Amino acid sequence: MLKIIHTTYRYDELTQKLSDEKYDIFYHLGWAGVDAKDKNDISMQLSNIRTSLDMLKLSRHLECNLFLAAGTVAEYVFNEHIIDFTKKQTPNDVYGAVKTSVHYLLEIVAEQLGQDMIWTVLPSTYGEGRTTGNILTYTITTLLEGSRPKYGNLQSMWDFAYVTDVAKAIIKIAESGRHNMTYGIGSGTHQTLRKYICTIRDLIDPKLPLGIGELENSAGKRGDMNILPSSCINIEPLTRDTGWKPAVTFEEGIKKTIQYYKDMKMR
């Protein structure tokens, strides 16, 4: 039976509240500071380290068979399009750097505790109900307000996945994924950010202007790397080990998302 526990409980309160029952899988999906304005808030991001380690210890205390934690493509911002999870991470903000740190810390402590775990690398996720901003929600809400959204050159290759596909993938990974592995979740398709943004504009109103190229590209370079930031995930290992495949195309998912924001605007 799936139980959802409110995340504002302190560690000792959670331990006491949950200890009377048996659980198979511990999903640690919470994170403070996922909104764009908070991703470089060092204090907020560092608070996630203690929380994540506490949740791992709690999963061991509850004798769970598996601890599943959520990583992010922000760990691998600069890569040659398709992310190779065996290579060094290349975060470009504090959020991605702390996610990377937590990944390593959890692996080390899990081994010390004898707790099986899986690390999932989540894609840029969109859908109805999202309250934290990303380029898709910014585009939709700006166009629906009758304003002109502004961007850099939008040449980066990207992977956006619909929220229900991501949720189902997480469940399949916990149920049938190989323990102590890293799995990337994605849509299985990649295209430039420009194409995604133009699709959204065309679905709302093809005549609306887009300010592509009106802003300086903010991601820039990191060290001696001179490649565009990218977010493209190879889902073949995930499909091979779990049988999961994405079910919602970008066009289908973004139509539902646009309608959600239209309905919100009319309330």
Summarize the structure.
The chain is α/β, with parallel strands linked by helices and 267 residues long.
What does this structure look like?
40% of the residues lie in helices and 11% in strands. The protein has eight helices and eight strands; from the N terminus they run H-E-H-E-H-E-E-H-E-E-H-E-E-H-H-H. It is globular. The chain is an alpha/beta fold and 267 residues long. It has a four-stranded parallel sheet with strand order 1-2-3-7, with helices on both faces. A two-stranded parallel sheet has the order 4-6.
Oligomer: single chain
Uncertain runs are none
Strand content bin: 5-15%
Structurally, the number of domains stands at 1
The coarse silhouette is: globular
Q: What's the total number of strands?
A: 8
Q: What's the arrangement of strands in the largest beta sheet?
A: 1-2-3-7
Indicate the mean pLDDT: 90
By CATH, the topology is Rossmann fold
Query: Percentage of helical residues?
Result: 40-55%
Superfamily at the CATH H level?
NAD(P)-binding Rossmann-like Domain
CATH C-level label: Alpha Beta
> What summary fits the major beta sheet?
4 strands, parallel
By DSSP (H or I, 4+ residues per run), the number of helices equals: 8
Distance between the termini: 35 Å
Radius of gyration: 19 Å
CATH architectural group: 3-Layer(aba) Sandwich
SSE order, one letter for each helix or strand: HEHEHEEHEEHEEHHH
Structural class: alpha/beta
